[in-house]
Amino acid sequence: MKNHDTNYIDGKWTVSSGTSRIPVTNPANDEVIAEVVAGTAADVDAAVAAARAAFPGWSATPVGERADYLTAIAGKLTERAEDLARTISAEMGCPISISRAVQLPLPVNSFAEAANIVRDYEFEGEYRGSTIVREPFGVLGAITPWNYPLHQIALKVGYGLAAGNTVVVKPSEVTPLCAIALTEIVDEIGLPPGVFNIVFGTGAEVGEAIAGHDDVDIVSFTGSTRAGRRVQEIAARTVKRVSLELGGKSPNIILDDADLQTAVPASVKSMMLNSGQTCSALTRMIVPRDRLAEVEALAKATAEALPVGNPAEDGTALGPLSSRAQQKRVLGHIRTAIDEGARLVAGGDTDSDAPGAFVRPTVFSDVTEDMTIHKEEVFGPVLAIEAYDSEDEAVRIANATDYGLAGAVWSGSADRAEKIARRIRAGQVQINAGAFNANAPFGGYKQSGNGREAGLFGLEEFLEVKSIQR
């Protein structure tokens, strides 16, 4: 077991003012594999002070030099890709094949793309007689989740640093080990002291200290809508900019002319990726009522064929959930769905006393809009099938949610699918399994948050706008 008793502040590993530790548990077997320090508000004060002191120099650093640092980080992540993939699998249960294919390539892309975009970015220009200048906010507080732990740090740190901000990061206490590895890389490439700082700990202690800090100029948070509300509430006391990427209950409309043999299996497999622990997962499949039985049969066969097991083995499609607490929460949602009248098609009966935080791929049908499983994010391998009688009803059901992060449409006609996609109130919509674009703007409508991450929009999220009149 490894112990890590320090935070990274002002260019060096620094002993925390706190003495408590947080265990890091492998959710596949309940083994404690490491302990990290539980940082304190005093540690946040020190990290923010270092970031504030480093800001003038970093923001004045030529753009090309900033980009070179980010390119170097991307290169070092690539060199350590296999070790990092195994670290993520061990600390949050993601199957090793998914860690290699998704968990590592995404952050590598984010650092590399941030460097590419900023090299050519026009930070000022003329508009109707004024000079418009885009400049960094100052100190960026980044509070990140456990489901795509390295990717979510990269989206904030890569683009935040590219824009000229300095950063203070709080990684999830569930998945701190990949953040430690990233910090080792940052230290190795010689990023100037204070530009990147990381404080380990809980949301209640470290996260809230960052969100409410007087000298943090912008907060970027990814996590649940409940936690996002808390971050926004605390940050509002100092009227700082807050960017939120929150929960989802995303609809997947399968139109009556779609090829079900292709659409249903592909949709089930996509939704179950990372054991359903993806904020943009298409967890509501909205299907023609007269084809409901066919959809159910396909969904059941696909879900039951997914290999569930040891995330370290190459053939595993679904590992455990990230923790026992997450397993308990998901199983509670399954019991509630049954109690409220949803019909269980597949899965649903995981033995919570067995080793590991596993939940079998689960499919419900006969789901209606008054049910909790229609309304609330489960964040596990649980699919809800909802039936419709008309195209307009399908769109209405899709939009009958407090969330608006993602959506999808399947149809035999690309034009018809696009018309429906434009009616879905969500930040990104895919048509007929359109490939995920890691550099397209990512973010949501309604209670899925505000702001956008990745690509050009991700860079501009971390830039203030100034107009100069002569």
**Sheet of most strands:** 7 strands, mixed
Shape: globular
Per CATH, the architecture of the largest domain is: 3-Layer(aba) Sandwich
Beta strands, count: 23
- What is the CATH topology classification name of the largest domain? Aldehyde Dehydrogenase, Chain A, domain 1
Molecular structure report:
The protein has helices at residues 41-59, 63-79, 81-92, 96-103, 105-119, 149-163, 177-189, 203-211, 225-235, 260-272, 292-305, 324-339, 372-375, 391-399, 414-421, 455-460; strands at residues 2-4, 6-9, 12-15, 21-26, 31-37, 124-127, 130-136, 139-143, 166-170, 196-198, 218-222, 241-245, 251-254, 284-288, 343-346, 362-365, 382-388, 403-404, 406-410, 428-431, 445-446, 449-450, 463-468. The protein has 470 residues and is of the alpha/beta class. The strands form six sheets. Strands 15-16-17-14-13-19-20 form a seven-stranded mixed beta sheet, with helices on both faces. A six-stranded mixed beta sheet has the order 10-9-8-11-12-22, with helices on both faces. The protein has a three-stranded mixed beta sheet with strand order 1-5-4, covered by helices on one side. The longest helix has 19 residues, at 41-59. The radius of gyration is 22 Å and the shape is globular. The model has no long low-confidence stretch (mean pLDDT 96).
